Each structure stands twice: as structure tokens, then as C-alpha cells.
Amino acid sequence: MQILSQRDLQPFHTFSIPTQAQLIIRAESVKDIIEIYQNPSYQHLPKMVLGSGSDTLFCNDFPGVVILNRIKGKIVREDNDYFYLDIAGGEDWPQLVQWSIEEGIYGLENLALIPGRAASAPIQNIGAYGVELKDVCDYVEILDLHTNKEIRLSSAECEFAYRESIFKHSHRDDYIITAIGLKLAKTWKPQLSYGPLKDFDPHSVTAQQIFERVCAVRMQKLPDPSVIGNAGSFFKNPVVSQEQADDLLQAYPDMPSYATVQGVKLAAGWLIDQCSLKGHRIGGAQVHPNQALVLTNLGAATAQDILQLATLVCARVEERFGVTLEHEVRFMCDGKEVTLAQFKETL
Ligand code: NAP
Q: Is the CB of 338 within 6 Å of ligand 1?
């Protein structure tokens, strides 16, 4: 474990907004995490584990210990039908995807370039271009902070849903994800249902080609967080009833909509764009001009700028379409996770 001499959180979250923590500690093993939680000096301080900070907005200084999960390790096992990857939680997700393809292990290519660490992937069941973590997840290993024992949850026990899992609910506070297991079929089937992949021939396409296409599209549409601070999609795509979707489609026949088991999924980016908010700024925060689903820090944004912009976006979409947007980004305020609505009450 390494206690960092600096307390600035700016380099450790992709919105890159200057905020401080009381203490930042790099954890390199599960033992490190247990020691931090057991250390009497930190007992009364709030603590949180951060991967790459690619889904977190610090609304103010964190009055406690931020633990950077840097537990590393990758093991490959196999049987006749599958590769099984045991991946430590601090492994970088984009590097993991690239490495798997170089190793001839396929199935993660649609999930290329999603910023974050392996341990963060199950929390919001990361997904892109028709593949979600739940499709490839074998297990998630968690540390139970009551018993200091590691427990292995099956994929079914994680209760994965669209950008959802048990780790946002009952297993949010007292458990830390330390590793994940992935199960990838040796008989690979490409997932080509999304627009940018549709022109590939399913009989001849390679995982490498899909990987390269996904990387190219993402690099073109999404701001690189190392250049422009952002946390990827700020909002989830809303899922509405068939009835509401039909009403909206009558008024807006061009509106993208996708049938799902839970209802009809709308494209939040399209709704925001229709409100003419692409490029809209408040202070140093901007709705990304190429992808309205992403809010960015142009360099000098405060968390308040981002939150005001998010509030405006929600209000405009609600007013025009009667659709409530939910945020995907997680807000940390006074050492606790809060919703946008709760945060507004504190202003
Ligand atoms: P897009 O192609 O502009 O499409 C807008 C939305 O429509 C997507 O978010 C996607 O929903 C949905 N969609 C498009 N084609 C679909 C299909 N064939 N079947 C079902 N739903 C479809 O999307 P984009 O913004 O460029 O993103 C492309 C992919 O990368 C999406 O899967 C998106 O979720 C993912 N992505 C995720 C993040 C993040 O931070 N979470 C950031 C950027 C991109 P879904 O989102 O449900 O797939």
C-alpha cells in the first residue's frame, strides 16, 4: 500500500475537477484494503474505493480516505468450450480488452475503450454496441467489510440489468469488488446489431476488425478524458412504456426507439439534441458538441457548473418530451453518494 503525499483528486477522476481528499491511498492487494478499513486512525472517516474515477463526480472535497484500487493480476484458464479469465479489480479495462484480443480470446471487442477498471465494470454493468458485461461475466468477487472474507457471487446473484446491478443497491456500501471472472466462448459469434458494425459480413469479420471499428467510432464521437474532462454518458437511455413511446413517435416519427423487455428504450442523446442543447455551456461545463449524452469540463468547470448543466438538460427534456432522464454518473457530496435531486436540495 502507498499513502500518497498529495491529496488532490484531480488526476484520479476523469472529470478532472480540482477537489481534495483528506487522504489518498493506493491499495495493491485485498490485504491492503482490509488494513485500511481496520486502521483505527481512519475509523471515523468516510472511505471510498475509486477505480479510474471515470463514472464519478466529486461535488466537493471528500472528507475522508479515497482508496485507489490498483490490485493487479490476470489468469487464463480454459476447457474445451471456454476461456475463463480471472481478473484482479485494479486492471485497466481498455488494456484488458486489447490484451484479450492479442491473446486470441474473443468476446470483449464491442466493449473496447470503455474507461475504467475491471472492478468498476459490474457496478453499472457496462455496455456498448450490443454487448453488456453480464453477457460475459462468470462471477464477481467481493470483500465483505463486516467479516473481511471474500465471497464469490455468480453472475445471476449480481442482478445485472441495464446499467444496473446489486452493487448500486444492497451491496453498495459494505462490499468492495476485488476481482471479476469472465467466461468467453471459444466458438466466437460476432455481435453486429449496432449501426456502425452492421456492414461487416458475419461470416468473415474478425474480432480484431470489430475492435478497431469500435475504437475508431468512439475516438471520433467521444471526447478523450485525458484531453477534455468527462465521465462518458452522463445520462442513461430512458425506458418508457409502449403507450408513451407510441405517443412520442406520432409527434416525432424520426425518434430512435428500441423495444426491450422492460419497455421501449429511447436514445437520451437524441432527446437532448432535439432540445438544441448540443454545445450548450454553463460556466466551464459543456454538452459535448459531437455527442449530447456527454457533459464535459472545458478546463475550468466546477462541479456546480456540471450539476447546473445536468439540471438544465433534465428540465428541458422533461418539458419537451415528458421523459425523465436518470443520471448514470455517480455524485459524491460531503463523503456520501447522492442523486442529482438530493444534491439540488443542498444548494
Ligand atoms: P448511438 O449509436 O448514437 O445510439 C444511441 C443509443 O441508441 C445508444 O445509446 C444505444 O443504446 C441505442 N441503440 C443504438 N443502436 C441500437 C440497436 N441496434 N439496438 C438497441 N439499442 C440501440 O450510440 P452512441 O452514443 O454512439 O453509443 C454507442 C454504444 O456505446 C452504445 O451502446 C452506448 O451505450 C455505448 N456507450 C456507453 C458509454 C457510457 O459511458 N456508458 C459512453 C459512450 C458509449 P445502449 O446505450 O443501450 O446500447
A: no
SS3 303: helix
Mean pLDDT across 205-225: 97
Backbone angles phi, psi at 258, to 5 degrees: -135, 125
Whether residue 347 has pLDDT greater than 70 = no
Name 199's Cβ contacts closer than 8 Å, sequence gap at least 6.
none
Picking from 116, 181, 174, 180, the residue whose alpha carbon sits closest to that of residue 143 is: 174
Residue 336 burial (CB < 10 Å; 0-12/13-18/19+)?
middle
Please report how many Cα atoms fall inside a 13 Å half-sphere around the Cα of residue 40, on the Cβ side: 0
Q: Any catalytic annotation for residue 233? A: yes
Q: How far apart are CA 215 and CA 181, in angstroms?
A: 24
Closest to 179 in 3D by CA, of 279, 96, 81, 266: 96
Dist. CA 229–CA 227, nearest whole Å: 7
Give residue 58 CA to ligand 1 midpoint distance, Å.
Answer: 25
Residue 328 annotated as catalytic: yes
pTM exceeds 0.85: yes
CA of 217 from ligand 1 middle (Å) equals 12
Name the closest-CA residue to atom 34, ligand 1: 128
The C-alpha cell that represents 207 in the structure block: 474480432
